[in-house]
User: Fold this.
Amino acid sequence: MEEQRQRVHHSYIWLGSLRSLGWLLFVLIIGSFSSLASLFATFTSGPQSVLALALILGLVIGGVIVLFGLVVGIHAWAYRHLWYELGPEEFSLYSGIFTKKRMHVPYAKIQSVDQKASLIQRIFGVCNISIDTAGGATNNAILVPYLTKQQADTLRLSLYTRKQQAAAPAQATTEVPVAAAAPGASPAVMANGTAGAAVANGTVSAAAPSAPVIPGASGAQGNILDTGEVVWDQVGGIFAGDMVNHEPVSFEYRLSNKELILTGLSNSSGFVVAVIVVLVGLAQLISGAFDIFPESGELITGTLATSSEIFGLEAVIAVSALALLVVALVVWLLSVLNACLSYGGFHARRRGGRIEIERGLLQHQTQSVSIDRIQSVIVKQTFVRKLMGYCELSLGKVDAASPEEQSNQGRSLAQNGIVIHPFLKKASVQEILDGLVPEFADIPTDEQKLAKAALRRGLIRRCLWQGGGFWILVVAVLLLAGVSFAQSEGIFSATVEDLMAVYYLTIAAYLLIGLGVLLLVLDAVRTVLWYRESSFAVNRRFMRLANGGLSTESITFPRVKIQYGFTKANPLQRRAKTATINACTAAGVGGSTASLVDVTEAAASTWLEWLKPRRPQG
Assistant:
């Protein structure tokens, strides 16, 4: 395992430049859109508008060309100072033009190696590799950009094999080096350090037995979008090399057509984000149109007034509402399509001591994690999926964020973990766990329910102090009281304007009352469901904690993965003889805490005894 300097692919220069230029232009356009619009309106109103417009466009195009040249030059200079090495004991990454940066990672500290490729990267057959060391709350994954598929596969295989040899040097046996004459070459080793792998033409092949597929959960045929993923893999890309086979797969499955479609249909977060983006974009376009064409505002206002006179105000409002409904429906369908493309080609497999997840038809990503780094198993159900009897199954792991994802990182287990099935029947969860993570199959079932006082405390806490419906009712009552007081004191006169103001204020108050009552009822139902479905259970090796409600989340983690646990009780809880239990694991970036409120004091004390370290017998 001699050190060899290996460079990333040269597409780092021009693809990276295009990406950086795109972000720069986006920021410049957003920041100077109003100024450009005002300048455009000023020059086009003069006698030499054509000449002035040509001059403006020429300056803009020339500025873009100069900016692109600078960006390409910077990336070409950075490319000369960017390479990585596979040393005897550590992986090294060198980068930086003025400020030199050298990152050295011992193989034993590597936790996971993930792969991600955008659409443009897939076209050219390159991807980014993210090496996670899970070194703390502020830890960033080490990003190796713009590797060919062959480079990425070989690097991932080499890192995992060297990690195994570093962790158990006595068990490491044979390694077959490959001369790295080409930039993409890298030492290739046998899977698990055992016989059975062969090296040919710079690639590694291994005889892999057919992996079992869950009967009745996800068919072996997968779904229709898997065909597109197969085509992508066959074409590879312009610079893609031969694929490198890893160690044999012992278990794998895909999504069926039904599961893929239902995953998209039940994706509500994408719809909300898309609607916000559309509304903000429309506001920006309308504002820009008013700046460029000042008379357009008067034209739109006049058209609305004329339409109201001809068809009536109610008809105009109905047409506007219908148009917004159509736009919302189109955006929702686009979000469904986006979710389907995100999970197109979904493929989960167990390979030796690791779990690998591949997904994404256009933007492809591969996540891989060693089984010993998995902190928890999360079963999550939204309200819609709960009614259908389906759930999302994911694994919490010690995580790190890449520099480009650091601003978007979350703290929840599901966000930082690996989704191993986005839309699964609740009854099939155990089948998935038995095949993919049999180490987590021993889920405890002896549940400890909440204390009887938890329902009363939950109704007070969730429906009153924390409930939005209660405070909306308070505002509505105060509004009605204020209107009545103003009428009794003669603040409102008998004019038409004052009478209309009183009418609209009263209508608004009653609408708020209706909304408040609805939210209050929903809070009460959510609290009752939380009380009935929340619990925790322990056995010799595992703990399971469930929080119910309109949506539910169940987290199972091994006892040895709990970093620390504690209970707490405020004065009201001590009076009700209840407590809150908290179990902290290393999952996510900076760790995660799973809590359950209002268990009995006896159950909390028993849990603390279970949590204490056990001394070995004898």
Observations:
- Residues 496-533 form the longest helix (38 residues).
- The first strand starts at residue 5 and ends at 7.
